[in-house]
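Exercise 7. Predict the joint structure of the components listed below.
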Amino acid sequence: MISTQKTETVSIVLDGDEVEVPVGMNLVDAAALFQKEIPHYCYHPQLSVAGNCRMCLIEMGTPMRDRGTGEAILNEDGSPKIGWVPKPVIGCATTVSPGMHVKTISDKVKDCREGIMEFLLVNHPLDCPICDQAGECRLQEFATDYGRGYSRYTERKNVKPKRTRLGPRVTLDDERCILCSRCIRFTQEVAKDDVLGFVDRGSYSTLTCFPGKELENNYSLNTVDICPVGALTSTDFRFKMRVWFLKESPSICTESSAGCNILVSSREGEIYRITPRRNDDVNDSWMTDSGRSLFKKVRAEDRLAVPSIKQEKSSFDQSIQTAAESLKDKKVAIVGSCHATLEELYLLNRLSKATKSKKYLRGHFGQDDGILLSADRTPNLRGALASGFANTYPRDNLSKLNSDLKKGVIDAVLVLNEDLLSSGVEAESLLGISIVYLGTHANDTTNLAEVIIPTLTSFEKKGTFINRSFFAQGFEQSIPGLPGLLPDVHILSKLLDELDNENKVTSDFSLIWKNLSSPPKSPFKGMSFSDSLGGSLKIDETKWKDLPFVESNALHYKK
Amino acid sequence: MISKKIPKERRVILKNADNPSYSNKITCYIKEGGYDVLKKSIKKKPEEIGEEVLKSGVRGRGGAGFPTGMKWKFLDRKSGKPIYLICNADESEPGTFKDRQIIHKDPHQLIEGMMISAYAIQAKQAFIYIRAEFFEGAKILNRAIAEAKAKGFCGENILGSGYSCDLVVHRGAGAYICGEETGLIESLEGKRPNPRIKPPYFPAVLGLYQCPTIVNNVETLCNVKHIMEMGGETFSKIGKPNNTGTRIWCVSGQVKNPGYFEFECGALTLGEMIYDVCGGLLPGRTLQAVIPGGSSAKILRADERFKGTHKDGTDFDWGIEDIPLDFDGPMAAGTMSGSGGIVVMDDTVDMVEAMANINAFYAHESCGQCTPCREGSLWMKKISSRMCSGDAREEDADLLLSVANQIEGRTICAFGEAAAWPTQSFVKKFRKDFLKKAKTQKRKKDSLQLI
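Solution:
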């Protein structure tokens, strides 16, 4: 998000160039603003500063002042005299101050980096050929960029445990650990589950869980992400795929309304892992473990793969035709989904207008963990509101639909990705009702459906979700959909074509967004889909501020 | 060597310690005028005590020699947070055994010094952090504190002044690094004693529990009592300018009469200490080297010449015997007086083995927090141990020096220097011994590693 706030800056001299940097920034971040890398292992922008890896040693000096008068001491040419700190300082723990001089490139700095790299490698097993981190390993990168390129070490290396189970999802290789303590700080400061620590001392220090504890919190895999080396590995991803074969695509997590920004790593259409993508307004650099396993649904056994009519395989066109016929001129109920994208919900709303049907929506709620798993377990409840599909806050069931069915005011139901039978709709209420089911996975409702049109998971399509903070976050398709399946928006627009000849709609995202943003009081005023792809797009939430949102205060979310 | 008059000790801190009729009980201490200075001091304004300490010029006795009065001045008094006083009784530097004499033989002197200091900095709570191995010392201190509390010298409403300060003894768990003040603070907080990064964690601002904290050595805190007894002005006249007061020197190694000796700063030279006070070397031996300030201080070679210019402009040209025993003397000779632990080595000592021994100590004691010290100290130990078990190579000397250079100045705390300085100085000054090792020693097949 582009910040319009003016931040106060100070001027420092970075490798001879005078630059302006924000007040309070440390030198690692400040140098990065100017494309200068100060290599580091233990420093992480979202964790406390430990200063233990010593990789970010640089030279620093400040303008000298007379001790008595406090006046600046000047060189002969009138420039301020710089008092260079005799020892190298760590960039991560040094905050910028006015007139500070910094050398990130010098013989001394080079010597420091070479020394630290050598030290880090003397007891490192150098088992890159079998290490999962290879290819995205800081040790490899910095050894190449800042190391000497040869070893002077002829002694025996320390031996430590190679495969310790830290918890259900994390496996530790202690020999690779460089003791940077990022994982320890993460569990203390972010996950608030203090279970990791070092035992033994000196070079024999070993990362471990406290006795009787396990690293089993729902954020444990973030320790794997922030581990700069191959020490902490994901038990699920371990030995599955070389990372350089993986294609990384940005996406949004669908687990809850937190809307974590994620990276989907896939090879040849197969997802191998999900990792968080940094967004300082939404999820920092974190996500839940449970959100990472959602991709397994893509290739699940109960995935709907072919269209069917009356539980018999059918063609796409035929099933859309049949679906349209069973909805046409009927008293239709449309069941939307908070898992659907903003664009899908917009089209669904259009469909409800075309068929003059009643609209139903259920929420899925759970416990809020106060971090990144919010009580609203759907990614787009606010999208349902903003698209116009829903005007009230959804309940966690469809008992209203059940009673309407019983009253006989409905004779056809169009369902988007929602299991009616587990949402308080009784099976007998559905007797004689024709059900058109659009969704990704089989459930009890699909068994009753007259027409089933399979749809795509969020990894296989593009769209927009609106998270708990009313950030519209667009995402692109990460992997190809199952063969023969169409994006939901295409199916919905085809259905609309069949049901309403007068008001033509398209599945074109720019047109959908044009329609979304055109009403005078639209919360999307002046916005487009590409804007929402570009970053978190805050939309005007005043219209819904009195709704009983279930989320409680959490990371980057204030009720 | 021409025999001179043996320099006379001036015992201030250890005045009563070795008196056979003196005990560490409070009755004995009071009989000798104990706690009178506390009674006098607690009627003064706290700032006045700070002024006297500053005037006295007393420098910390723990190793770094930082002026105590200055240290107190840095204290953040405006934060509104409670202030803590910690006595560093983690005396762990190899070759040092002075603080234990005070703790064992005259604990009330320390308690009095601490209570005066605590009052001066307006501490809310005072701690004595004592190393784990001093279990007897901890017992003695606990008993002494109970005695002092019963008499109202410590605890609630000290001597009716309205000022209260509890004093607690906390035992370490056996780690050298707990002598580093921020490591000590971490340990006192119940954590692993990983030293903190400075900035921002200067103890005087963000110390124990992130509150302003003063950490002083045992001997330093005892000196506060004597400063208040004689006045800062008078104290500053003991010893030499910038090297005020007395110091307790601990002499160990191959001398006839090792032990601890209290002298005015600069009252004698290293030669006088070795040959006159300690009776010289064992028969038939010659001096090879001296470590002047605990094992982390740089070693001095017996045949070195130390030349340079003093701050006042006068030149000096010293042999090892001429180095004055104070703070600045050893510093001028390129080493430090550190904790006052003088280790004497005669010609029978194998310098490579001596260094291997020191390296083994620092590799064992490195906390493991920051990379250079953690990996470098163990690497140096592995090299030097290998050298001593018949596998020395000619290039090892340069490698050792290079590894040590990669540690010095790049670590979180001063342990990096403590580990690097011995190796740097041993290799530089006894290079021939290192090269000889490579030429003459061949591993016997079944020989065991020495260290």
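Discussion. Chain A has three domains: 9-105, 129-135+156-297, 308-544.
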